[in-house]
Amino acid sequence: MNVTVDLAKLGIEQLSAMQLKASDSIAQGERDVILLSPTGSGKTLAYLLPILQKLDVSSKEVQAVVIVPNRELAIQSAEVLQLLTKAMKGFACYGGRPTMDEHRQLRQVQPQIVFATPGRLNDHLDKRNISIETIQYVVIDEFDKCLEMGFQEEMSKILEKLTAVKQRILLSATDAVEIPHFVNMNNVDRLDYLTSATVSHQVRVFSVHSPDKDKLQTLKQLLLSFGNQSTIVFTNYRESAERIHDFLTFQHFYSTVFHGGLDQQERESSIYKFSNGSVNILVSTDLASRGLDIPDVDNIVHYQLPDQEENYVHRTGRTARWEKEGRAFLLIGPTEEIPAYAISHTQEYSIPVTDSQPALPKMATIYIGKGKKDKISKMDVVGFLCKKCQLAPDEIGRIDVNNYYVYVAVQRNKLQEVLKRAKGQKIKGLKTIFEAAE
């Protein structure tokens, strides 16, 4: 099946050598494939493009499943598919919402590809919400995470059920995990683009020495020097992430926090606001270092030094994606030293003196209290903002339509004007809430 794809919607002019080689290997279909490639190198496209050409667009059954370790990666992978083509339908399945609701949506959407976390996929297969007989392709993304001990029982049950599978594709940014026998890889084509665990040459790495054990004041001065550039601040613990976020908020920075202790909507909201430019700073544990596709991150700050080199590489790999340049900063306390793995490529950095205030983000997020369940689409939102709120198309940013609500980014200097004009208005004939999601 020849499916037309639109790479331009992802801002891509041409595929990398890795993507071309992986696509060719998967497209041939004669062998199972293991693809090892660094964080940010575009592995999602590398498997999606050839699989799209293999599936029957006229079929209303699931033909491929992509197993991922967390809900964020499931959602983002499904969004990539949606941008690539309208010919194929995808659907993301994950915990934190009722299985019954997902089953109802599966019947409505009738996807050819499902992106799912292990536990939720196993549940759907057990309940026969997804036909086992039609699944021909299995992708395990971030397989080192999916095949960890906590997931192994679920993964074993899933793969045992999928007896009609023709090809298995495993992807990872690390080669640290032995593949269990139950994955049943046969005649494997192994594509290794890792070479070694190193930071991209497009990233400049700096050390910043703090006179205080508690490095908050040093972090504040560093962030002030960044202006409104986008920055991820990494910590080792949830409690630290919350404390830093609270401090930055008190200091009037536009910050949000992301870690495994938040509920689903809180995590999604944090990523939306950071990705759409409504906040400049994301404070996170290592949860944000893998899988999430957050474009155009200017700076990475290691507030707490990573325990292992692998974590350092993955964190730092959040910037300088798709051949762009970026910066990473190691905050070094009075009793700390630059880790041995970073010494060779780290320069000392002096924070420029500034008396400026925290910079305003370019965008602001508006919450609209209707969503997919109310038949609201992105075009409905664009039409409303242009006609009722008199915005120009280039004053509207990212739009995320969820089941029961919408997040939309608008230029910050237009926020109050939009809220004023939206008050009392209907979208697609429906009364709803329009408010700032700050």
Automatic annotation (TrEMBL):
<dbReference type="InterPro" id="IPR001650">
    <property type="entry name" value="Helicase_C-like"/>
</dbReference>
<feature type="domain" description="Helicase ATP-binding">
    <location>
        <begin position="24"/>
        <end position="193"/>
    </location>
</feature>
<dbReference type="GO" id="GO:0003676">
    <property type="term" value="F:nucleic acid binding"/>
</dbReference>
<dbReference type="InterPro" id="IPR005580">
    <property type="entry name" value="DbpA/CsdA_RNA-bd_dom"/>
</dbReference>
<dbReference type="InterPro" id="IPR014001">
    <property type="entry name" value="Helicase_ATP-bd"/>
</dbReference>
<keyword id="KW-0347">Helicase</keyword>
<feature type="domain" description="Helicase C-terminal">
    <location>
        <begin position="218"/>
        <end position="364"/>
    </location>
</feature>
<keyword id="KW-0378">Hydrolase</keyword>
<dbReference type="GO" id="GO:0016787">
    <property type="term" value="F:hydrolase activity"/>
</dbReference>
<dbReference type="InterPro" id="IPR027417">
    <property type="entry name" value="P-loop_NTPase"/>
</dbReference>
<dbReference type="Pfam" id="PF00270">
    <property type="entry name" value="DEAD"/>
</dbReference>
<dbReference type="InterPro" id="IPR044742">
    <property type="entry name" value="DEAD/DEAH_RhlB"/>
</dbReference>
<dbReference type="InterPro" id="IPR050079">
    <property type="entry name" value="DEAD_box_RNA_helicase"/>
</dbReference>
<protein>
    <submittedName>
        <fullName>Helicase</fullName>
    </submittedName>
</protein>
<dbReference type="GO" id="GO:0005524">
    <property type="term" value="F:ATP binding"/>
</dbReference>
<dbReference type="GO" id="GO:0003724">
    <property type="term" value="F:RNA helicase activity"/>
</dbReference>
<dbReference type="Pfam" id="PF00271">
    <property type="entry name" value="Helicase_C"/>
</dbReference>
<dbReference type="Pfam" id="PF03880">
    <property type="entry name" value="DbpA"/>
</dbReference>
<dbReference type="GO" id="GO:0005829">
    <property type="term" value="C:cytosol"/>
</dbReference>
<dbReference type="InterPro" id="IPR011545">
    <property type="entry name" value="DEAD/DEAH_box_helicase_dom"/>
</dbReference>
<comment type="similarity">
    <text>Belongs to the DEAD box helicase family.</text>
</comment>
<keyword id="KW-0067">ATP-binding</keyword>
<dbReference type="InterPro" id="IPR012677">
    <property type="entry name" value="Nucleotide-bd_a/b_plait_sf"/>
</dbReference>
<keyword id="KW-0547">Nucleotide-binding</keyword>
